[in-house]
Amino acid sequence: MKIFTASQIYDADKFTISKQQIKSDDLMERAATALFNWIHSRLNGAQVNIKLFCGIGNNGGDGIALARLLQEHGYSISVFVVNYSEKRSKDFLINLDRLKDRKLWPEFLDSDCSFPDINQNDIIVDAIFGIGLNRKLDDWVGNLIKHINVSNAFVLSVDIPSGLPMDSNPSDSSYVIRASHVLSFQVPKLIFFLPETGIYQNQWEVLDIGLDPEYLNSTNTEYQLIGKNEILPLYRPRLKFSHKGNYGHAVIIGGSYGKIGAVQLACSACLSVGSGLVTAYVPECGYNALQTALPEAMVLTDDEDDSITKINVPFVPSVYGIGMGMGTEEKTIKAFGTFLKNVESPLVIDADGLNILAKHPSLLKDVPKGSVLTPHPKELQRLIGEWEDDFDKLNKAKDFSVKNNCILVIKGAHSIVIHAEKGYINNTGNPGMATAGSGDVLTGMITGLISQGYSPLNAAIFGVYLHGMAGDVGVMDFGYEALKATEIINNIGKAYIELLRPPKPENVKEV
Ligand SMILES: NC(=O)C1=CN([C@@H]2O[C@H](COP(=O)(O)OP(=O)(O)OC[C@H]3O[C@@H](n4cnc5c(N)ncnc54)[C@H](OP(=O)(O)O)[C@@H]3O)[C@@H](O)[C@H]2O)[C@@H](O)CC1
Ligand SMILES: Nc1ncnc2c1ncn2[C@@H]1O[C@H](COP(=O)(O)OP(=O)(O)O)[C@@H](O)[C@H]1O
Ligand SMILES: [K+]
C-alpha cells in the first residue's frame, strides 16, 4: 500500500474533484459518511455522550459534518469548535451552516474560555487538526489537548491525531492527542510507523473515501506499507522436481566464546526458511555445540578456539550471512577486512559485522554491491551518525544506501527496508519479538532467502515480513513475554502457510 505525503494527498483531492466532477464539500461528505458508518456500526444507536472537538479547517469540517449525521440518527452529541484562527475553510463554513440549519449550535472555545468537562465514559471525536498542521500550537489549544488526554475517555481521531505534524516531530509532545483509534482517510500515513511519532495512537484504520484510483495508481511514493498483497508476488514456489542444489548453499560466519548460540539461531532460521544447504563458520569452541544442536548444518572452524581470526571457506557459496556474536577483536577485524577484499557473493551483514564497518568505514568500499545490512537502532547510529528525528534518520539512511550501494534494514517495531530513495515499511511482528536473538533469526532468514534465489532487496522485504509473521503466529501459543527467538524459528513454516492461505470467499457460511 502506498504511503502518500500531505502534498500528494492534497493533489489527490484536487484530481478527484476535477475528474469525478464533484465539489470539495462532496468529498468532505464522503469522509464524514465513512466516519459515521464506522461509528454507527459499532454503537448501534447507544446513548453514550459523544463530544466532538472540531477545528476550523477541513479536519474540523469533517467533524462538523459527522456531528450532523450523528444527530440525524439520534445520537447524544455536543459539538465544540476550537477557534484557533479566523481563517476558516470554505467547506468548514458550509458544514457549520448545515449544522445551524438543524438548530444545532456548537460551543465556541477560545483562549479565554474554560474547557468543557469530559467524563471517562464519554467518546471524544478529535477533529481539531489534520494533515494541515504547519506550526506550533497556541498554548491554549495545547492545554485543551492535554485536558482531553488526561480524561481517559476513548478518543477517536479523524485522519491523524491532532497536533502531530506529517513530516517532523511535534515541538511539544504534550500538545498531541493520544488517540485510542485513528480513522485515516484513504491511505496510511508515515507518522503511524515511526518510533517517535507512532506512539500517539493505539490503533489506526484506513477509511476509503473514493479518492481517484488513477491518481493513486500512477503516483510514485517514497514509502510503501508492505502487507500480504505486496509479499505474495515475491514468493518463489518450490518446484516438484527440484533438489537441494536448487536452493543454494548459505554460509553463516560468526560466533565467539559464549556467543555461539547466535550462529546456531541464524543457521537454524536459514534452513527453516528454505536454504538447500547451510554451513556455519565458527571458532573451534563452537564445533561440538553446533554439531549437536543442529545436525542439518555443516560446520567449518577457525584455527583459533575463542574467536574468528581468518575466514577460509573452501568453496563459493550462494550467499554469506556474517557478524552475529562475532566480537570486534583486532584479529577478527583483520580477518573480516581480508574476507571483504576477496568476497564476491552478496552478503547479509549483522551485529559485530556492522560494528566493525562503523569503526572502520574504509572497509565499506569492499562490501559487495547489493549487500543487505541489518542494523538495530544503535548499530544504525554507529553507521550513519546521530539524527535529529525519525525523518532525518530516514533521509540519512537513504543517503547511506545510495553512497554504499547497499540495502539497509532498519529494525524496529515496524522495520523499514531502505533501498536508495525507497522505503518498504513492514507491518507484521509484535513486542514479543523484543528478545535476545530475534535479530540473528532475521539475518539467517534473509540469508536463506538469497540462497534460494530471491534478489537481496526482495529477500530483505520478504524476510522481514515472514520473520514478523512467524513472531505473530508464535505469540498465539507463547504470549509476548515467553516468546523466544527459537519459537520464531519454529513458526517460520506456519508463517509460510499463513502467507499462502487463500483468502476466505466472502458471504460463504462456515458449516
Ligand atoms: N483527501 C483527504 O484525505 C481528505 C481530507 N479531508 C480533511 O482535510 C484535512 C486537512 O484539512 P486542512 O488542509 O484544512 O488542514 P487542517 O489540518 O484542518 O488545519 C486547518 C488549518 O489550520 C492552520 N494551522 C496549521 N497549523 C496551525 C497551528 N499550529 N495553529 C493554528 N492554525 C494552524 C492552517 O492554515 P493556515 O493558517 O496555515 O493558512 C491549516 O490549513 C485532512 O486531515 C482531512 O481531515 C477531507 O475533508 C476530505 C478529503
Ligand atoms: N516491538 C517490536 N515489534 C516488532 N518487532 C520487534 C519489536 N522489537 C524487536 N523486534 C524485532 O526483533 C528483532 C530484534 O533484532 P536485534 O535487536 O538485532 O536482536 P538481537 O541482537 O538480540 O538478535 C528485529 O527484527 C526487530 O524488528
Ligand atoms: K485530527
Concise account of the structure shown:
The protein has 511 residues and is of the alpha/beta class.
List the helices and strands and how they pair.
Elements (H helix, E strand, L loop, with lengths): L1 E2 L2 H14 L4 H20 L5 E6 L3 H15 L3 E7 L7 H12 L5 E3 L13 E5 L11 H11 L4 E5 L20 E7 L15 E7 L5 H6 L4 E4 L1 H4 L17 E5 L7 H12 L4 E6 L4 H7 L4 E4 L17 E4 L7 H13 L4 E3 L1 H9 L12 E2 L3 H8 L5 H15 L2 E4 L5 E4 L2 E5 L11 H14 L4 H27 L2 H6 L1 H9 L11
Parallel strand pairs: 2-3, 2-5, 3-4, 5-6, 6-7, 7-8, 9-18, 10-11, 10-13, 11-12, 13-14, 14-15, 15-16
Antiparallel strand pairs: 1-9, 16-17, 17-18
Helix pairs in contact: 2-3, 3-4, 8-14, 11-12, 14-15, 15-17
The protein binds ligand NPW, adenosine-5'-diphosphate (ADP) and potassium ion (K).
Adenosine-5'-diphosphate binds next to α14.
InterPro entries: Carbohydrate_kinase_pred_CS, CARKD, Nnr, Ribokinase-like, YjeF_N_dom, YjeF_N_dom_sf
EC number: 4.2.1.136, 5.1.99.6
Family: Belongs to the NnrD/CARKD family.
